[in-house]
Amino acid sequence: DIVMTQSPDSLAVSLGERATINCKSSQSVLYSSNNKNYLAWYQQKAGQPPKLLIYWASTRESGVPDRFSGSGSGTDFTLTISSLQAEDVAVYYCQQYYNTPYTFGQGTKLEIK
Amino acid sequence: QVQLQESGPGLVKPSETLSLTCTVSGGSISSYHWSWIRQPPGKGLEWIGYIYYSGSTNYNPSLKSRVTISVDTSKNQFSLKLSSVTAADTALYYCARDQGYLGYWGQGTLVTVSS
User: Nearest 5°: CA angle at B96, between B95 and B99?
Assistant: First the structure.
């Protein structure tokens, strides 16, 4: 199985400031034949199901605010929230879909400082 | 807008079989893969497996011996059966539309394993 490791486990950021969450995979999730990274990011607010934010490592899902962006390739990825809003308080997960079983990072809890 | 809704018993006895159904509305189940994912209370996400509308399946090896996922295209539903459950199977169970990434999720249903 591909192991996904997120850092940090928790993060407190002031409103309007940048938040950065990292995700590292135990093997590359870049498929060379199409040059796509099989990596997604989700946001899970309390009492809600996860919500897809980013797929193919950097493609924003429709309706997701543009303050959310994804970057990285191969084994190292980053989710950035450029200007933190109160409604961004949540747990964030990365997921690889390069192969099965799909695996998720352990989650990063984002709070307001 | 695609919507998914899980249904099934919220309490299952140890050693028995957990059975859940996911009803898809706002779109046909006859395309895409469809997945089950679970989340123990206060913990992270675990992918259980997926089914294609044709009936082909792919299961997490950690659960493969106990899992069966089936589809009923006439009802736009797919189902999960997990046998020989223990307290470790207590979790929120989600169904989702699977394109590798999981774009649409149900609200989840809590299943507690207890006598």
Answer: 150
Smallest CA-to-CA distance from A74 within A22, A112, A30 is with: A30
With 0-12 / 13-18 / 19 or more C-beta atoms within 10 angstroms meaning exposed / middle / buried, residue B26 is exposed
DSSP for residue B15: T
Confidence of residue B31 (pLDDT cuts 50, 70, 90): confident
| pLDDT at residue number A9 | 98
Q: CB B92: neighbour CB atoms within 10 A?
A: 18
Q: Do A95 and B45 touch (CB under 8 A)?
A: yes
**Among A111, A71, A106, A108, residue whose Cα is nearest residue A88:** A111
**Token pair for residue B42?**
């206060």
State the nearest Cα–Cα gap between A7 and chain B, in angstroms.
14
Please state, in angstroms and rounded to a whole number, the distance separating the CA atoms of residues A78 and A71.
Answer: 5
In this complex, the residue of A38, A55, A100 whose CB is nearest that of residue B58 is A100
Q: Would you say how long chain A is, in residues? A: 113
**How high is the pLDDT of residue B106?**
98
pLDDT 10s digits, A78-93: 999 999 999 999 999 9
Q: Among A52, A56, A103, whose Cβ lies nearest the Cβ of B102?
A: A52
Main-chain phi, psi angles of B89, to 5 degrees: -90, 0
Rounded distance between C-alpha atoms, residue A30 and residue B54, angstroms:
28
